[in-house]
Amino acid sequence: MNFTQTKTLYEDHILPTYGRQEVCFVRGEGSYLYDDAGKRYLDFASGWGVMSVGHAHPQWVKAVAEQAAALVHTSNYYYTRPGGLLAERLCELSGLDALFFANSGAEANEGLIKAARKYSGDKYGQNRHTVVTLNRSFHGRTHTMLAATGQDAYHKYFQPLTPGFVHADMGDLDALKALGDDVCAVLFEPVQGEGGVYPLEEAYVKAVAALCAERDWLLLFDEVQTGAGRCGTWFGFQHYGVEPDGISFAKGVGGGFPIGGFILGKKARGVFAPGLHGSTFGGTPLACAAALATLDILTGVLGDVERKGRLLRDGIGSFGGRVRGTRGRGLMIGVVVEGDPKAYAKALLDHGLLCLTAGTDAVRLLPPLTVSDSEIGEGLSVLREVLA
Ligand SMILES: *Cc1c(COP(=O)(O)O)cnc(C)c1O
User: Is residue 240 part of a domain?
Assistant: First the structure.
């Protein structure tokens, strides 16, 4: 099947919700992808940060193959070992208390909202249901997460959205202080991803945490993009010295196998009882085995993520040309460019480098966390050619 035949199948039978690039991949290995003509690409997008340990990592492949042969799915009416082991590991790594397994980021965030409303409803009655998120944020594509997302472009056409969300500007503490007693939680990305790769400031996060403690609002972080080591710590919030009441995770945790979920701290872990939340596919032994293997691999590379991020950013910082600077943390990097970032992403693809864009002014790099120094060097020379 050639490229045109593949593309025709998509055009005939798949709804056109994505602006796809003109390439069909057939294989991946480590930090590289190969298209249907055998051309090799350096993957600095890693499937929106999902392929945290690269493509076809032998340890991941072995774990998934063995678990697939043993037990794939039983439903959540029964116990399986990988679920228990992964839950224990994620609670240890986050310092939080107990979790729920889902399948995607949006679904994970929805669970956090349910937890916050239940917590507040139990304690203060039903009128405390408003969740504060930030302008420029992104929390997913379900109706409730569109409402949470602080970008009007995503709201258009899909009204009415789920009520109960307000948006504030990042850094504006007074806007939060001015909110009324209908608030039950704040939900922030530690580093805004889709919105443009904007990290939260430490002083702001500490002040928000203090305000949450004072008013008994739950402090929630959307770690869907920043989690699983992306920012150089297991979770992005760990840069700030605060203790959240809950976090969500997805993207990089499964190393390519779909898994998401949310983890609650001591304060809110008691809100759920049997029947109040659920998921058919959540936490299958196969997904959990994939995530356990991913976390094992990440344990060996986590200590190097910040250094590799600095290597990339220092290199890019020396370009000049059409590069105005960089934003981000660890291996979550926004390259601020002059002109349309989408045009640069297309040019970089033509030169054999995959990247993403973020907001209106940034080319976004989310390489696998297993990326090597020499692959970073290779990426920098392509970036220099196109951007400098
Ligand atoms: C990608 C993303 C989501 C949505 O995740 P899905 O798996 O696509 O539902 C939510 N929040 C953030 C911060 C994300 O980056």
Answer: yes
Place of tokens 């202080």: 177
Q: What is the pLDDT of residues 190-233, one digit of tens each?
A: 999 999 999 999 999 999 999 999 999 999 999 999 999 999 99
Does residue 149 form part of some domain?
yes
Q: Which long-range contacts (CB under 8 A, 24 or more apart) does 168-171 make?
A: 168/132, 168/133, 168/134, 168/135, 169/134, 169/135, 170/134, 170/135, 170/136, 170/198, 170/200, 170/204, 171/201, 171/204
* Predicted local confidence at residue 126, as pLDDT: 85
CA of 219 from ligand 1 middle (Å) equals 18
Task: Based on the fold, state whether residues 235 and 349 are members of the same structural domain.
Answer: no
288 and 334 in a single domain? The answer is no
CA of 144 to the centre of ligand 1 (A): 13
Domain ranges, residue 138: 71-299
Pocket test of ligand 1: the residue of 18, 138, 189 to mutate, having most ligand atoms within 8 Å of its CB, is 138
Pocket of ligand 1 (CB under 6 A): 104-106, 109, 138-140, 189, 193-194, 222, 224-225, 250-251
pTM above threshold 0.85: yes
Question: 125: CA distance to ligand 1 center in Å?
Answer: 30
> What average pLDDT does the structure give for the chain?
97
